[in-house]
Write a structure and sequence with these properties.
Helix content: under 10%
Distance between the termini: 35 Å
Number of strands: 5
Largest sheet: 3 strands, antiparallel
Structural class: mainly beta
Number of helices: 0
């Protein structure tokens, strides 16, 4: 299943990468940048899974250079 996403802030820097860390086990973890606009989910259970427009599916964590 493909789900379009919006960022809460338009102030994310274009020159950095982030890790999208999901809150739900059905959502995949991604390496992303500000051009990232969809996530993929997979429901392997026999139960339905409802996603509301306001659901927070995860958070972005900035990747630090060493």
């Amino acid at each position: 299943m493909t789900i379009p996403i919006d960022f809460e802030s338009d102030s994310l820097p274009d020159d950095r990468d982030f890790i999208f860390k999901p809150k739900y086990p059905e959502v995949y973890t991604y390496l992303v940048n500000t051009n990232f606009r969809v996530i993929y989910m997979r429901n392997d259970t026999d139960r339905s899974f409802k996603i509301n427009r306001k659901n927070r599916l995860g958070k972005l964590i900035e990747i630090k250079k060493e």
